[in-house]
Amino acid sequence: MDNLSYKTVHANKATVKKNWILIDAENQVLGRLASQAAYVLLGKHKVDFTPHVDNGDNLVIINAGKVRLTGNKLQDKVYKRHTGYPGGQRFATPKELMAKDATLVIRKAIHGMLPKNRLGDVMRKNVFIYEGAEHDKAAQQPKQIKIDSLK
């Protein structure tokens, strides 16, 4: 019996192959889109998934301004932040954030689903979100996928 066939293969920085993936966010539900994006950024869709290595793909999300929120979340959901000063708690709804910058809502949703450590910081740099249909990553030839086809 060949013992080498039973070895577990662990990915490392040198052996990881990163692909470019394009996702169209038009008429997609925010939470479902963010969970699929986090799935790709973590690299869980790959055979050689290793939890302590950044082996996820680079992700380009277009049409961020056309993402959907179900129910009354557009007005009722509240994002909280603090300035660091006394009395500096600030609140914003998704409607206010989307009026300011539509990519912020998707970025916050994906950020909440990634690890809160140095590896998560690296993974967050692998996502590129654009409000419209045009993006500047055409040279990387991203492969467009449907988010339902990942799991």
Describe the structure.
The protein has 151 residues and is α/β, with parallel strands linked by helices. It contains five helices and six strands. It has helices spanning 30-42, 73-76, 94-100, 103-111, 118-124, and strands at residues 20-24, 58-62, 79-82, 89-92, 127-129, 143-144. The chain has a four-stranded parallel beta sheet with strand order 5-2-1-6, covered by helices on one side. It has a two-stranded antiparallel ribbon with strand order 3-4. Helix 1 (30-42) crosses helix 4. The protein starts with 19 loop residues before the first strand and ends in a 7-residue tail after the last strand.
In short:
This protein has 151 residues and is of the alpha/beta class.
Strand order of the largest sheet: 5-2-1-6
The number of strands is 6
What is the alpha-carbon Rg in Å?
Answer: 18 Å
Low-confidence stretches: none
Q: How many angstroms separate the termini?
A: 34 Å
Please describe the biggest sheet, giving its number of strands, its sense, and whether it closes into a barrel. Answer: 4 strands, parallel
- Residue share in helix: 25-40%
Mass-distribution shape:
globular
Give the ordered list of helices and strands. EHEHEEHHHEE
Overall mean pLDDT score? 92
In percent, how much strand structure appears in the residues? 15-25%
